[in-house]
Design goal:
By secondary structure, this protein is α+β, with helices and mostly antiparallel strands. It folds into two domains: 53 residues, no CATH class; 118 residues, Nuclear Transport Factor 2, Chain: A, CATH 3.10.450. Strands 2-1-6-5-4-3 form a six-stranded mixed β-sheet. A hairpin with a 5-residue loop joins β4 and β5. α1 runs antiparallel to α2, α2 runs antiparallel to α3 and α3 runs antiparallel to α4.
């Protein structure tokens, strides 16, 4: 949006200068050219500032999502998988488990309540984080490891790659919409 404003202002100023140039004498034209160069330099500088600001904003948002992932993983260790997955889920979150789609917090709660594994551990850390230009969506991926004990006392383990999609909420927090 701001780039379009810069471009629009530049077009207006350019057209104004062209109209004036047709009626100016040689000495006045040199003055106009000097002002044009200064104006162009200012516009380039302002555009450069905007790019740096956008880059800084994107890095800040990536750090927010990374911190959210860390808090999510810590809550799993402290309070358990069910509580953490419910707390960090958006109301319309979707889980993909064993090729089954689980939609919404109520279904996610029912899914975790039906799990019979004991002594569950789940560890993960994102290897990659990116955020949309609008700053409202993000995705992460990396490695995970899972283990638990079934009703027969046998240990079940799984390792692989995870992929999570995050959505920024109205209060500024991040909640997952896909895991």
């Amino acid at each position: 949006m701001e780039v379009r404003i810069y471009i629009g202002l530049t077009k207006i100023l350019y057209n104004h200068l062209i109209n004036k140039l047709t009626t100016l004498k040689e000495k006045e034209m040199k003055t106009v050219k000097s002002y044009s160069i200064v104006l162009l330099a200012i516009l380039i500088f302002l555009h450069g500032c905007k790019i740096k600001t956008d880059e800084d904003r994107m890095e800040l948002l990536k750090k927010e999502v990374t911190k959210t992932e860390q808090n999510f993983a810590e809550l799993v260790k402290k309070e358990g998988v069910k509580k953490a997955f419910l707390q960090f889920a958006s109301d319309d979150a979707v889980l993909n488990r064993d090729n089954t789609i689980i939609k919404g917090k109520d279904a996610i709660k029912a899914y975790f309540e039906s799990q019979i594994l004991q002594n569950v551990t789940l560890d993960w850390k994102p290897d990659f984080v990116d955020v949309s230009l609008a700053g409202d969506l993000s995705y992460t991926y990396g490695k995970y490891s899972f283990s638990g004990t079934d009703q027969n006392g046998e240990k079940i383990t799984s390792e692989g790659n995870f992929h999570t999609v995050w959505k920024r909420q109205k209060d500024g927090s991040w909640k997952y919409v896909w895991d």
